Amino acid sequence: MTKAGIDLQLGFETALQNLGLGAGAAHALWMPLPMLLLIIAATLGVMVMTWLERKISAAAQQRIGPNMAGPQGVLIPIADGIKLLTKEDVLPILADPVLFTLGPILVFLPVFLCYLVVPFGQNLLISNIAIGVFFLIATSSVQPIGLLMSGYGSNNKYSLLGGLRAAAQSISYELPLALSVLAVVLMSNGLDTVGIVEQQSGLGILSWNVWRQPIGFVIFLISALAETERIPFDLPEAEEELVAGYQTEYSGMKFALFYLGSYANLLLASLIAAVLYLGGWSFVVPVETIAALAGIPLDNPFLQIGAAALGIVMTMVKAFIFIFLAILLRWTLPRVRIDQLLDLGWKFLLPVSFVNLLLTAALKLAFPTFFGG
Amino acid sequence: MSFLKRVKEYVGDAFRAAKYIGQGMGVVFDHMGRRPVTVQYPFEKLIPSERFRGRIHFEFDKCIACEICVRVCPIDLPVVDWAYNPELKKKELYSYSIDFGVCIFCANCVEFCPTNCLSVTEDYELATYDRHDLNYHQVAMGRLPSKVTEDPMVTPLREFAYLPKGVIDPHDLPAGSQRAGKRPEEILAEMRAAKAAKEKEAKAAVE
Questions:
Q1: How far apart are CA A209 and CA A371, in angstroms?
Q2: What is the mean pLDDT of the segment spanning A312-328?
């Protein structure tokens, strides 16, 4: 299991070295490729999500949704993007120009940094760092600072209230999120995302973490919804009370950064949910078992390409199940009040996630074979 | 023990909340499978009901320039330009106009017109780029209304009250399906039959 699957990096670098390049130069040439690919993939994912959001919302309300821009309105995200790109970038007269500009960037950047550790396959991730999950939580904690900056820098009472709410919400839901992730980490004896997936891939669907961490899974989903500021928890941008919260004064590309950031954040949360609880790239039945049954050796190149493709598809399918749930929840639940939000976070999710963590630790000591020894 | 009881209640509350959220999501999910009732406007249009009050139609030759329409109009809107013709010993109408940018489509003028030269149509697409274009003179008001059912570019759809009993979607109705309740001509025929029967009875009683 150490180096199963295709290693594109190794292949690319050896090919370049065979052409006569140094190891360092080959690595430098390789490095931008996956980053570019991931940025494009994340942006494409966001576009698909905005389209899905419109279509599913329309279906839930028995409307048709976008249907004129391209077949089934698939060109709507492109039209959206072009519109936002060509719009005037307004800076309010009494706004703080530095904070106002820095805010959206600080909201947007951490999300894309977090994609560094999201695995789509054995070697299909940018960097398999040993502190992967910790990196995720730490990086996404930078976001509230950006939200607060944009809220404060806009010189608008709605923006300020929205920014404060966003910061309060992000900070209070970070704890249950981190604690539920910690329980998973406890079971897989490591913080790296690849290790967490591999630990779940032994028996296919049966060994996924959902079965061993049902409470943690629910806590993770609720806190992730709150972290991404989606509807039952969209207080920071509650349009009925705060116009658009911290986004009120933004237009053009800066608003697009918020927009992109929020959807990329939802996609990221879904991907992490898939990685931590739904077995990441692993298929319902392990690919190794299928290969053994069909009598194909594991180092067959076609099998490896097929397995890699299946891994990417499985990760996306699992992530999009969560996205679908989030959109469905959007049209089911009303927005909670700020006191209810903090109540849920501090008085319910936090104690329950502590209990879950202790329970996991106890079960790990009692049944090391089932809960990771 | 009271602490444990409170914990039990709390957990029960949480599960109940989860159950209700699940039920709510089930309802929303169920709605996703239903056909949209959207009338896609430029391609599909609702058939206006027979009591629809749209743009006013005007017949120049019937008008006797009595100006009753002006008097009954809540805002005295129709402009009637006439002069007394001593040769004919009659009012001679020169022009007639209504500004549909101001008209409230109450159709009082139609109601009170003694010669029935005014009538309501089912035209409602009056949008223009200039509000002055909404001031219709007698020629513009004399144009025949276009019918939704006769436009080859448009799929006519029935309004909610004209759908069969229990149907809420106007799309793909089976041919010949009738609306709920009796049609006006059926009610009229019934009334006539009842009247005839009564007269017959009265006749029989006299004889």
A1: 9
A2: 89
Report the Cα A66 to chain-centroid distance in Å. Answer: 26
Cross-strand partners of B136: B98
Token pair for B113: 């017109």
Q: Decide if B38 and A333 are in contact by the 8 Å CB cutoff.
A: no
Does pTM top 0.90 for this prediction? no
Contacts of B13 (CB under 8 A, 6+ apart): none
A355 touches chain B (CB under 8 A): no
pLDDT tens per residue across span A276-304: 888 878 787 777 777 778 777 777 777 77
What residues of chain A lie within 8 A of the CB of B40, using their CB? 64
Pick from A34-48, A126-140, A243-257, B133-147 the range whose average pLDDT is largest.
Answer: B133-147
Q: How far is B162 from chain A (nearest CA, A)?
A: 21
Element (H, E) at B58: strand B56-58
- The partner residues of B125 in beta bridges, in order of sequence, read none
Structure tokens at A132: 């992967």
User: pLDDT class for A3, splitting at 50, 70, 90?
Assistant: very low
Residue A250 or residue A240, greater confidence: A250
Return all residues near A252 (Cβ < 8 A) that are at least 6 apart: A84, A85, A87, A88, A89, A90
Q: What is the dihedral angle through the alpha carbons of A307, A308, A313, A314, rounded to the nearest 10 degrees?
A: 60
Is residue A233 pLDDT above 60, yes or no?
A: yes
Say what the pLDDT of residue B128 is. Answer: 92
Residues of A in contact with B28 (CB under 8 A): 60, 328, 331-332
Measure CB to CB from residue A348 to each of B14, B28, B29 and give the nearest one: B14
Distance CA B104, CA B56 (A): 11
- Does A348 lie at the interface with B, CB-CB under 8 angstroms? yes
Q: Which of residues 309-338 of A touch B (CB under 8 A)?
A: 328-329, 331-333
Work out whether strand B44-46 and strand B155-157 pair parallel, antiparallel, or are unpaired. Answer: parallel
CA distance A49 to A319: 11
Say yes or no for a CB contact (<8 Å) between A64 and B36: yes
Cβ contact A245:A198 at 8 Å? no
Q: Quick one: tokens of B20?
A: 């209700």
- Provide, as residue numbers in chain A, all residues whose Cβ is less than 8 Å from the Cβ of B14: 348
Rg for chain B, CA atoms, rounded = 29
Q: What is the pLDDT of residues A154-201, one digit of tens each?
A: 888 888 888 888 888 888 888 899 999 988 888 888 888 888 888 887
The rounded distance, in Å, linking the Cα atoms of B169 and B159 is 9
Residue with tokens 């406007």: B41
